[in-house]
Automatic annotation (TrEMBL):
Organism placement in taxonomy: Eukaryota, Viridiplantae, Streptophyta, Embryophyta, Tracheophyta
UniProt protein name: Cellulose synthase-like protein E6
Positions with a binding annotation for UDP-alpha-D-glucose: E108, D137
Topology within the bilayer: Multi-pass membrane protein
Source species: Aegilops tauschii subsp. strangulata
Molecular-function annotations in GO: cellulose synthase (UDP-forming) activity
Example GO biological process: cell wall organization
Alphabetical list of Pfam families matching this protein: Cellulose_synt
Keywords: Cell wall biogenesis/degradation, Glycosyltransferase, Membrane, Transferase, Transmembrane, Transmembrane helix
Subcellular localization, as worded in the UniProt entry: Endomembrane system
Regions crossing the membrane: 21-38, 50-67, 517-539
Active site (catalytic residues): D137, D442
Residues binding Mn(2+): K278, D302
Cellular component terms (Gene Ontology): endomembrane system; membrane
Length: 548
C-alpha cells in the first residue's frame, strides 16, 4: 500500500474548461479581425501602407498568441510529499552540493552573501550530506572574509535554527521579520544571537567600506595569505579554501552536531583568457566540488537568493526519488521570487505570468526552462549524460569518508581544476556543464538537457522556497528585460533555435513554449508600430479602425 503512493502528485489547474472556452472566443475574435483587415485594404494613396502595416502587426500578434497557447492550454501544479519521502527513505538520502555565485563585493555586499550562505547551510537536511560552495568572480578578500565570518557564526546560528525550528533561516531576513518576538526562546537567548549577528555584519560592512581586513584577523586563517598587493579581480591565481571540512570530526557546532562543508572558490582569472561569466563559474564549481564532495545532486542559487523554506531540498528529492517518474527527471526548477518588490509592483517584476502560468504550462509539456537560480540538477545529467530507459542513479555516490589526503592536498587538486587553461581543448561549456556564449546560458543549457531526452519539473510551493533581490527601478527593470529578451532572441537566431535543435527530440508544443521567450524581443516591433502609427493616422485623418 505504502509503496504504491507516489512521492509527488500532479494536479491540473482549476478552471481549465473556462479558460479553453475563453481561448476559443479570442481565436474567433482574432480571425474576424484579420478577415476585416484583409478584405478592406484601402486604395493606394488612402493609407494603404499604414493599413498593410497594421495587418502585419496583427498577424504577428495572432501568431504569438497561438504560440502562448501552447503553455496555457493545460498547465499543471506539482505537490511533493516529504512525509512519504521520510517514511520510505528515512535519513538515507543522497548528498547535495549547493553552488552560490557572486561577482562583485560592492554590488553584491559580502554581508548579503553571508546571510544567503547561512540560510543554505541551515537546511533541514543531514549536515554531513550538505556542502555549500561559493564562487567569487570578484576574487575579493572582502568576500572571503565574509565567508570566514560565516563559518564561525554558523556554529551558533545552525543550532539556534534547529532548536527553535525558525524560518526563514537567513539571519538578515529572520531578524528583519521577527521584531523581538520570543514565543520560542528566552528573550535573552534571542538578543544574544541577534547581537552576535549584528556585530558580525558590522565588522564585515566596515571591512568593505575601508577595503581592508585588520591584520589580527588575517592572522587567523591561512586563506587570507592568498591575497597580496598585485591581485585584482581580473588577474589572479585560482583560490580554493575549504573553510569547514564536513568530514573532519572536529568540525562541529556549539551543540556538537556536524557542520556542512563550506568552500570558497575564486577561479583563476587572467586578462588574456575569456571567463564566460556565470557559466564559467558554474563549470569551475562542478569540477572543484567533484574532488571535495562529488554529490549526485547539485543545487544552484544566485548570491542574493536566500532559502525561505528549510524543507526545499527534501521537496526536490521527492521528484528525483519517485519510483515511477524520478529516473526521467533531469532537473527541478523553483520560481524566482523577490522579497523587495514595491507595493504596487508597477514594472511587473513579480513575474506573475511566468511563475504562475507559463512555467506550470511548460511542466505539462516536458518541463520548465532552467532559469539559472533555485534549481536542482543531477550532476551526471548536467555533465552531458543522455537519457536511457535503464538509467539508474547511484544515490550513494559522493565522497563520504575522509580521504587519505590532507585538506591542503585536496585544495591543490581543486585549484588545478579552477585554472584558466583547464578547459582548453575540452568539451566544457559545450557538451559538458553549463553552455557558453549566451546571455541566458541557463536557458540554453536546460534546452540541451531536454533535447538529450530528460524531462524537468517545476515546483512552485505556496510558501516560496527562495527569495531574491529583484529590480525596483525602471532602469534596472529595463536592463534585466533587455538581457533576458536579447539572450532568448539570440537563441532563436542561432543553431539552437528550438524548432530546429529540438526537432524530433521534444514535443512541438514544448518547442512553442520556448519560443514565447525567443520571440519576446521582436514582439516589441509590432507593439511600437501599433502605438505609433494609429496615432499619426488619427492626426492625418486616415481611418485604420472601423467607425462606430
Ligand atoms: O561573471 C559573472 C557574472 C555574474 N555572476 C553571478 O550570476 C548571478 C546572476 O547575475 P545577475 O547579474 O544578478 O543577473 P540577473 O539578471 O539577476 O540573473 C537572472 O538571469 C540570469 C540569466 O538568465 C540567470 O543566470 C540568473 O540566475 C537569474 O537570476 C549572480 O549571482 C552573479 O553574482 C557570476 O558569478 N559571474
Ligand atoms: Mn540578480
Amino acid at each position: 500500500m505504502e509503496r504504491s503512493r507516489r512521492l509527488f502528485e500532479t494536479e491540473t489547474h482549476g478552471g481549465r474548461a473556462a479558460y479553453r472556452l475563453h481561448a476559443v472566443t479570442v481565436a474567433a475574435g482574432i480571425l474576424l479581425l484579420l478577415y476585416y483587415r484583409a478584405t478592406r485594404v484601402p486604395a493606394a494613396g488612402e493609407g494603404r501602407a499604414a493599413w498593410l502595416g497594421m495587418l502585419a502587426a496583427e498577424l504577428w500578434y495572432a501568431a504569438y498568441w497561438v504560440v502562448t497557447q501552447s503553455v496555457r492550454w493545460s498547465p499543471v501544479r506539482r505537490r511533493p510529499f516529504i512525509d512519504r519521502l521520510a517514511a520510505r527513505h528515512g535519513e538515507r538520502l543522497p548528498s547535495v552540493d549547493i553552488f552560490v555565485c557572486t561577482a562583485d563585493p560592492y554590488s553584491e555586499p559580502p554581508s548579503l552573501v553571508v546571510s544567503t550562505i547561512l540560510s543554505l547551510m541551515a537546511y533541514n537536511y543531514p549536515p554531513e550530506k550538505l556542502s555549500v560552495y561559493l564562487s567569487d568572480d570578484g576574487g575579493s578578500i572582502l568576500t572571503f572574509y565574509g565567508m570566514w565570518e560565516a563559518s564561525l557564526f554558523a556554529k551558533h546560528w545552525l543550532p539556534f535554527c534547529k532548536r527553535y525550528n525558525i524560518e526563514p533561516r537567513s539571519p538578515a531576513a529572520y531578524f528583519s521579520q521577527s521584531d523581538g518576538h520570543q514565543e520560542l526562546c528566552t528573550p535573552k537567548e534571542w538578543s544574544l544571537i541577534k547581537d552576535m549577528f549584528d556585530e558580525m555584519t558590522e565588522r564585515i560592512d566596515t571591512a568593505v567600506m575601508s577595503g581592508k581586513i585588520p591584520e589580527e584577523i588575517k592572522a587567523k586563517h591561512k586563506g587570507f595569505h592568498e591575497w597580496n598587493q598585485e591581485i585584482t579581480s581580473k588577474n589572479h591565481q585560482p583560490i580554493v579554501q575549504i573553510l569547514i571540512d564536513g568530514k573532519d570530526q572536529n568540525a562541529v557546532d556549539n551543540d556538537g552536531n556536524v557542520l556542512p562543508t563550506l568552500v570558497y572558490m575564486a577561479r583563476e582569472k587572467r586578462p588574456q583568457h575569456h571567463h564566460n561569466f556565470k557559466a564559467g563559474a558554474m563549470n569551475a564549481l562542478i569540477r572543484v566540488s567533484s574532488v571535495i564532495s562529488n554529490s549526485p545532486i547539485i543545487m544552484n542559487v544566485d548570491c542574493d537568493m536566500y532559502s525561505n523554506n528549510n524543507d526545499a531540498v527534501r521537496d526536490a528529492l521527492c521528484f528525483f526519488l519517485d519510483e515511477e517518474m524520478g529516473h526521467k527527471i533531469g532537473f527541478v526548477q523553483y520560481p524566482q521570487n523577490y522579497n523587495n518588490l514595491s507595493k504596487n509592483d508597477i514594472y511587473g517584476n513579480s513575474l506573475h505570468v511566468i511563475n504562475e502560468v507559463e512555467m506550470g504550462g511548460m511542466d505539462s509539456l516536458g518541463g520548465p526552462l532552467y532559469i539559472g537560480t533555485g534549481c536542482f540538477h543531477r550532476r551526471e545529467i548536467l555533465c552531458g549524460r543522455k537519457f536511457t530507459k535503464d538509467y539508474q542513479e547511484d544515490w550513494n555516490a559522493g565522497i563520504k569518508d575522509k580521504l587519505q589526503e590532507s585538506i591542503d592536498e585536496t585544495e591543490e587538486k581543486a585549484k588545478s581544476l579552477a585554472a584558466c587553461t583547464y578547459e582548453h581543448g575540452t568539451q566544457w561549456g559545450d557538451e559538458i556543464g553549463v553552455k557558453y556564449g549566451c546571455a541566458v546560458e541557463d536557458v540554453i543549457t536546460g534546452l540541451a538537457i531536454h533535447c538529450r531526452g530528460w524531462e524537468s519539473v517545476y515546483n512552485n510551493p505556496k510558501k516560496p522556497a527562495f527569495m531574491g533581490v529583484g529590480p525596483t527601478t525602471l532602469a534596472q527593470t529595463i536592463l534585466q528585460h533587455k538581457r533576458w529578451s536579447e539572450g532568448n532572441l539570440s537563441i532563436f537566431l542561432s543553431k539552437y533555435n528550438v524548432f530546429l535543435f529540438g526537432h524530433g527530440k521534444t514535443k512541438l508544443r514544448h518547442q512553442m513554449g520556448y519560443h514565447i521567450y525567443g520571440l519576446w524581443a521582436p514582439n516589441s516591433l509590432a507593439t511600437l508600430y501599433y502605438v505609433i502609427i494609429p496615432s499619426l493616422a488619427l492626426l492625418k485623418g486616415t481611418p485604420l479602425f472601423p467607425e462606430v
